[in-house]
Amino acid sequence: MPRDNMASLIQRVARQARLTFRPPSGGNSSNGPRFAEDLQCLEQLLDKVRAEDLRLVPRGPSAVPGSVQPPASYMHICETESFSMGVFVLRAGAGIPLHDHPGMHGLLKVLYGTLRIACFDTAAGGDGEGSGGGSNSAAASAAGSSTVPSPKPPPGSPRRHRALLRSHQLYTPASAPCRLSPHTDNLHQIDAVGGPAAFLDILAPPYDPDHGRDCHYYRLGDGQSLSPDAEHQGLPREVWLQETPQAPDFWCGGEPYPGPRVSP
Fold first, then answer.
1. What is d(CA 91, CA 132) in angstroms, rounded to the nearest whole number?
2. Are 122 and 161 in contact (CB under 8 A)?
3. Cα separation values, 119 from 183, 198, 230, 246, 258, Å
4. Which of 3, 14, 52, 256 is the most exposed place for a label (fewest CB within 10 A)?
C-alpha cells in the first residue's frame, strides 16, 4: 500500500531538485560545498521513493518490445529551466542505448525490476580520432597502463572517442541512486534484466539542443563488447566509442504519469 506521505515525498524530491540545481550564485556552484550538501539531500530523498509512491504497478513478463509497442516509454512529471523529472519504463529485454548528457547532472532511481547500467567517462574535451583531431590521453591516464590500441580509421569515418568504462553493474529498488555529472559517468547504457523495469530520472539541466545539450548515441568500437560479467572484470577499463545515429530499433513512447501531482 502507498505510504501516507506518498504525495509529499515526490513533491519534496521535486522541490529539493529545484533547490539543488538552481542557477549558480555565491557558494552554489556545482563545485561548491553548498551544492554538494544539497545534492546529498536530494539523493537521500530519492533513495526513499518506491513504485507505490508514484502509483506504478510493475508489469508482467509479457510486456516485450515489438513492432507496435516502443521498447521504452516516458512518463513526464515536471520540468523547469533547471531540471526535468520523469519515469522511464523499459519493457522486458529492452534497453536505452549508450548516450551522453552534455554539461548535465543526473540521478536515476530504480522503482521496480532490475537494470544493468554501464557508465563511461570520455577523455577531456571529447576529442578522438576520425574526421579530424588527434586523441586525448586523459582516459588513458586514468586507466593506467591498460590501454586499448586503435588502428587509424579511414578518412571520412565517424569520429571515435577514447573513453573509460568505469562501472557495469546491476541496480534494483534496493540500490542507491545511480548518479552522473558533467565529467563523471556522463555516458551510460541502461538494460532491463529479467523482465520489465522502471526508474525515476532527474536531469539537470534538461536536454536542449538550442543550448548545446543534444543527446548523442555511441557504440563500442570494433572488437569490444559489454559482457554480462564485465562487472567482475578489472575496471576502470579504456575503450573506444564511435558516435552513431539513434538505433532504428530504439524509440521512446509516452505514457500518462499516474502519480501525485507535483509542482516544483
1. 39
2. yes
3. 12, 18, 12, 18, 30
4. 256
Cβ-Cβ contacts under 8 Å for 140 (sequence gap 6 or more):
123, 147, 162, 238
pTM, 2 dp: 0.82
What pLDDT, in 10s, does the model give residues 219-263?
Answer: 998 778 786 665 556 788 899 999 999 999 999 999 999 999 999
All three cell numbers of 111? 522503482
Query: Is residue 95's pLDDT more than 60?
Result: yes
List, for residues 120-129, the tens digit of each pLDDT value. Answer: 998 754 445 5
Structural contact between residues 82 and 204, judged by C-beta atoms closer than 8 angstroms: yes
Nearest one of 106, 217, 103 to 159, comparing CA atoms: 217
User: Which residue's entry shows cell 563545485?
Assistant: 31
Cell 538550442 sits at which residue?
210
How do strand 72-79 and strand 160-171 relate by DSSP bridges? unpaired
Average pLDDT over the chain, rounded to whole? 83
Rounded distance, CA 40 to CA 236, Å? Answer: 24
Q: Where are the beta strands (DSSP E) in the chain?
A: 72-79, 84-90, 95-99, 105-112, 115-122, 128-129, 160-171, 178-180, 187-192, 197-204, 217-220, 237-244, 252-254
The x, y and z cell numbers of residue 220, run together, are: 563500442
Concatenating the DSSP letter of every residue in 66-112 gives -SSS-SEEEEEEEE-SS-EEEEEEE-TT-EEEEE--TT-EEEEEEEE
User: Which residues are 40's β-sheet partners?
Assistant: none
Tens of pLDDT along 8-33? Answer: 799 999 999 999 999 876 555 666 78
Integer Cα distance of 160 and 152 in angstroms:
10
What single letter denotes the amino acid at residue 189?
A: Q
